[in-house]
Structures are given as C-alpha cells and as structure tokens.
C-alpha cells in the first residue's frame, strides 16, 4: 500500500472517530455504522439516532463535515437515520388510525419545503 493511501486511511479513520464523538455529545445513545460506497465513492458514516427529525443530528456535524469534505478532501459522507423500530412503530400507528395519508403528506411536505429552499445551479 502506498504511503499516500495509508495516510488517507488514517485521516478517514480519525474522521470516523471524530464525527461520532461530536454526535454523542448531544445524542449519547446514538449508534454508528461505517461502510464503503460507490455513488459517490467514499466512506459512509451512518448515525442511528432516536429523534423526531434527523436534521437535528445533521445540524450538529454539518460544519465539521463540510470542512472535512472541502478543505481536507476526505471522501466522507454522513447519513443520519432514525431506528427502524421507531419508524415501523410510527407507521403502524398511523396505519391503524387511518392517518397514513396525513403522515405521508407531512413527510412529503417536509421534503418539498426543504427541496424548494435548495438553490439549484442555473444552466
């Protein structure tokens, strides 16, 4: 293995320790998974946090993550997720109460709101 490759792996390993430490300061019960991805190629750090809105988790790391990606050229990507048990429980509750349509609308409305505030480059 080349010296550059070893250095890059050490930097990614350090980042994969740093970001979880930042998240755990605010969300101590968070758990993490690390994997390699292809689109784009890089290391994917998934945080599983029991919160109402995963934007809360992203807000804790976004400044440092951007620095790592832009300034330090690390191919590191962060994905905050809620535990599948919580999502299943909420989906089941909304299905049983007949409120699934409202729940889906709320989720799609949140997405559309976020999407509409994202600036797209002009062509």
Overview of the molecule:
With 123 residues, this protein is of the alpha+beta class. It has four helices and three strands. It has a three-stranded mixed β-sheet with strand order 1-2-3.
Quick recap:
The longest helix has 24 residues, at 3-26. Helix content is 59%, strand content 18%.
- The helix count comes to 4
Give, in spatial order, the strands making up the sheet with the most strands: 1-2-3
Task: Report the uncertain regions.
Answer: 108-123
User: How many beta-strand elements?
Assistant: 3
Q: End-to-end distance, in Å?
A: 42 Å
Give the topology string: H per helix, E per strand.
HEEHEHH
Residue share in helix:
55-70%
Which strand-content bin applies to the residues? 15-25%
CATH topology of the largest domain: GMP Synthetase, Chain A, domain 3
Assembly level:
single chain
Annotated CATH architecture of the largest domain: 2-Layer Sandwich
| Radius of gyration (Å) | 18 Å
What is the total number of structural domains? 2
SSE order and pairing:
Elements: H1 3-26, E1 31-38, E2 41-48, H2 55-71, E3 76-81, H3 84-96, H4 100-117
Parallel strand pairs: 2-3
Antiparallel strand pairs: 1-2
Helix pairs in contact: 1-2, 3-4
């Amino acid at each position: 293995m080349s010296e550059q490759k070893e250095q890059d792996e050490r930097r990614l390993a350090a980042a994969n320790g740093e970001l979880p430490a930042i998240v755990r300061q605010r969300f101590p019960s968070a758990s993490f998974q690390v994997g390699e991805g292809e689109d784009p190629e890089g290391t994917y750090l998934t945080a599983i946090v029991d919160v109402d809105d995963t934007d809360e988790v992203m807000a804790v790391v976004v400044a440092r993550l951007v620095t790592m990606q832009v300034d330090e050229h690390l191919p590191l990507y962060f994905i905050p997720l809620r535990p599948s048990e919580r999502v299943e429980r909420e989906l089941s509750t909304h299905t049983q109460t007949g409120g699934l349509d409202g729940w889906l609308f709320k989720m799609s409305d949140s997405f559309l709101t976020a999407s509409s505030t994202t600036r797209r480059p002009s062509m």
